[in-house]
Amino acid sequence: MFNDIGPLELVTLIVLAVLVFGPDKLPKLIQDVTRTIRKIREFSESAKQDIRQELGPEFKDFEFEDLNPKTFIRKQLDNEDLGLKEIRNGFDLKKEMAEVTDAVHGREAESSASGASGSSGGTVDMTKKPESPRDERPPYDADAT
Predict the structure, then answer these.
(1) How does pLDDT run across 58-112, given as a tens digit for each residue?
(2) CB within 8 A of 48, min separation 6: which ones?
(3) How far is Cα 78 from Cα 70, in angstroms, rounded to an integer?
(4) Are 122 and 111 within 8 A, CB to CB?
(5) Which residue among 65, 67, 71, 79 has the highest number of C-beta atoms inside a 10 angstrom radius?
(6) How far is Cα 35 from Cα 86, in angstroms, rounded to an integer?
(7) 43-48, Cβ contacts within 8 angstroms, sequence gap of 24 or more
(8) What integer pLDDT is reported at residue 38 of this predicted model?
(9) Counting Cβ atoms within 10 Å, is residue 87 exposed (0-12), middle (13-18) or buried (19+)?
Protein backbone atom coordinates (compact mmCIF):
# COMPACT_ATOMS: atom_id res chain seq x y z
CA MET A 1 0.00 0.00 0.00
CA PHE A 2 2.78 2.43 0.92
CA ASN A 3 5.53 1.04 -1.29
CA ASP A 4 6.75 4.45 -2.41
CA ILE A 5 7.28 5.91 1.09
CA GLY A 6 10.91 5.90 2.18
CA PRO A 7 12.20 5.55 5.75
CA LEU A 8 12.87 9.28 6.15
CA GLU A 9 9.35 10.12 4.99
CA LEU A 10 7.89 7.56 7.39
CA VAL A 11 9.80 9.04 10.35
CA THR A 12 8.64 12.51 9.31
CA LEU A 13 5.00 11.35 9.23
CA ILE A 14 5.30 9.76 12.68
CA VAL A 15 6.85 12.87 14.20
CA LEU A 16 4.20 15.04 12.55
CA ALA A 17 1.41 12.77 13.84
CA VAL A 18 2.79 12.93 17.41
CA LEU A 19 3.00 16.72 17.21
CA VAL A 20 -0.49 17.18 15.74
CA PHE A 21 -2.49 14.61 17.74
CA GLY A 22 -0.32 14.28 20.83
CA PRO A 23 0.94 11.12 22.49
CA ASP A 24 -2.36 10.61 24.37
CA LYS A 25 -4.69 10.45 21.34
CA LEU A 26 -2.30 8.78 18.91
CA PRO A 27 -2.92 5.11 19.96
CA LYS A 28 -6.70 5.58 19.68
CA LEU A 29 -6.27 7.23 16.27
CA ILE A 30 -4.10 4.34 15.03
CA GLN A 31 -6.74 1.83 16.15
CA ASP A 32 -9.48 3.77 14.37
CA VAL A 33 -7.46 3.98 11.16
CA THR A 34 -6.61 0.25 11.17
CA ARG A 35 -10.26 -0.62 11.87
CA THR A 36 -11.37 1.56 8.95
CA ILE A 37 -8.79 0.01 6.60
CA ARG A 38 -9.92 -3.47 7.67
CA LYS A 39 -13.58 -2.58 6.95
CA ILE A 40 -12.68 -1.19 3.52
CA ARG A 41 -10.79 -4.38 2.66
CA GLU A 42 -13.71 -6.56 3.79
CA PHE A 43 -16.11 -4.44 1.74
CA SER A 44 -13.96 -4.70 -1.39
CA GLU A 45 -13.54 -8.48 -0.99
CA SER A 46 -17.30 -8.95 -0.62
CA ALA A 47 -17.86 -6.76 -3.70
CA LYS A 48 -15.37 -8.89 -5.66
CA GLN A 49 -17.13 -12.08 -4.57
CA ASP A 50 -20.51 -10.65 -5.57
CA ILE A 51 -19.19 -9.69 -9.00
CA ARG A 52 -17.69 -13.17 -9.50
CA GLN A 53 -20.99 -14.81 -8.54
CA GLU A 54 -22.91 -12.55 -10.93
CA LEU A 55 -20.54 -13.24 -13.82
CA GLY A 56 -21.12 -16.97 -13.56
CA PRO A 57 -18.90 -20.03 -13.92
CA GLU A 58 -17.45 -18.91 -17.27
CA PHE A 59 -15.43 -16.26 -15.45
CA LYS A 60 -14.18 -18.34 -12.54
CA ASP A 61 -10.55 -17.55 -13.51
CA PHE A 62 -11.27 -13.81 -13.75
CA GLU A 63 -8.82 -11.66 -11.81
CA PHE A 64 -9.45 -7.99 -11.16
CA GLU A 65 -5.75 -7.30 -11.68
CA ASP A 66 -6.30 -8.23 -15.35
CA LEU A 67 -8.28 -5.01 -15.74
CA ASN A 68 -4.95 -3.17 -15.63
CA PRO A 69 -3.89 -2.97 -19.30
CA LYS A 70 -0.21 -3.60 -18.57
CA THR A 71 -0.97 -6.74 -16.59
CA PHE A 72 -3.41 -7.97 -19.23
CA ILE A 73 -0.91 -7.51 -22.08
CA ARG A 74 1.90 -9.15 -20.10
CA LYS A 75 -0.33 -12.13 -19.32
CA GLN A 76 -1.43 -12.49 -22.95
CA LEU A 77 2.13 -12.29 -24.27
CA ASP A 78 3.19 -15.09 -21.92
CA ASN A 79 0.31 -17.21 -23.20
CA GLU A 80 1.59 -19.95 -25.53
CA ASP A 81 -1.74 -20.34 -27.34
CA LEU A 82 -1.16 -17.20 -29.38
CA GLY A 83 1.90 -18.64 -31.10
CA LEU A 84 3.82 -15.39 -30.91
CA LYS A 85 7.06 -17.12 -30.03
CA GLU A 86 6.86 -19.28 -33.17
CA ILE A 87 6.17 -16.20 -35.27
CA ARG A 88 9.09 -14.36 -33.67
CA ASN A 89 11.44 -17.32 -34.16
CA GLY A 90 10.29 -17.93 -37.74
CA PHE A 91 10.94 -14.34 -38.79
CA ASP A 92 14.49 -13.84 -40.04
CA LEU A 93 14.98 -10.09 -40.24
CA LYS A 94 18.31 -10.23 -42.06
CA LYS A 95 16.91 -12.50 -44.77
CA GLU A 96 13.80 -10.35 -45.19
CA MET A 97 15.87 -7.16 -45.43
CA ALA A 98 18.19 -8.77 -48.00
CA GLU A 99 15.21 -9.81 -50.12
CA VAL A 100 13.72 -6.33 -49.94
CA THR A 101 17.05 -4.73 -50.83
CA ASP A 102 17.50 -7.07 -53.77
CA ALA A 103 13.98 -6.35 -54.98
CA VAL A 104 14.52 -2.60 -54.72
CA HIS A 105 17.79 -2.69 -56.62
CA GLY A 106 16.41 -5.13 -59.17
CA ARG A 107 19.11 -7.70 -58.50
CA GLU A 108 16.73 -10.64 -58.81
CA ALA A 109 16.00 -9.80 -62.46
CA GLU A 110 19.68 -9.16 -63.21
CA SER A 111 20.89 -12.33 -61.51
CA SER A 112 18.33 -14.49 -63.32
CA ALA A 113 19.17 -12.88 -66.68
CA SER A 114 22.91 -13.13 -66.17
CA GLY A 115 22.51 -16.63 -64.76
CA ALA A 116 20.79 -17.65 -67.98
CA SER A 117 23.64 -16.29 -70.07
CA GLY A 118 26.21 -17.73 -67.70
CA SER A 119 28.41 -14.64 -67.73
CA SER A 120 28.54 -13.68 -64.06
CA GLY A 121 27.44 -16.85 -62.29
CA GLY A 122 24.80 -15.16 -60.11
CA THR A 123 26.98 -12.29 -58.88
CA VAL A 124 26.35 -8.61 -59.42
CA ASP A 125 28.94 -6.61 -61.32
CA MET A 126 29.55 -3.56 -59.12
CA THR A 127 31.80 -1.86 -61.71
CA LYS A 128 28.99 -1.64 -64.25
CA LYS A 129 27.00 1.57 -64.14
CA PRO A 130 23.33 0.95 -63.42
CA GLU A 131 20.94 1.57 -66.24
CA SER A 132 19.04 4.81 -65.98
CA PRO A 133 15.29 4.34 -65.85
CA ARG A 134 13.26 5.41 -68.84
CA ASP A 135 11.88 8.89 -68.62
CA GLU A 136 8.33 7.93 -67.73
CA ARG A 137 6.61 10.73 -65.93
CA PRO A 138 3.36 10.18 -64.13
CA PRO A 139 0.33 11.89 -65.59
CA TYR A 140 -0.10 15.48 -64.51
CA ASP A 141 -2.97 16.04 -62.10
CA ALA A 142 -3.80 19.70 -61.51
CA ASP A 143 -6.08 18.88 -58.59
CA ALA A 144 -3.35 17.11 -56.67
CA THR A 145 -1.04 20.14 -56.57
Answers:
(1) 877 777 777 788 887 777 776 655 566 666 677 777 888 888 888 888 765 444 4
(2) 64
(3) 12
(4) yes
(5) 71
(6) 52
(7) none
(8) 97
(9) exposed
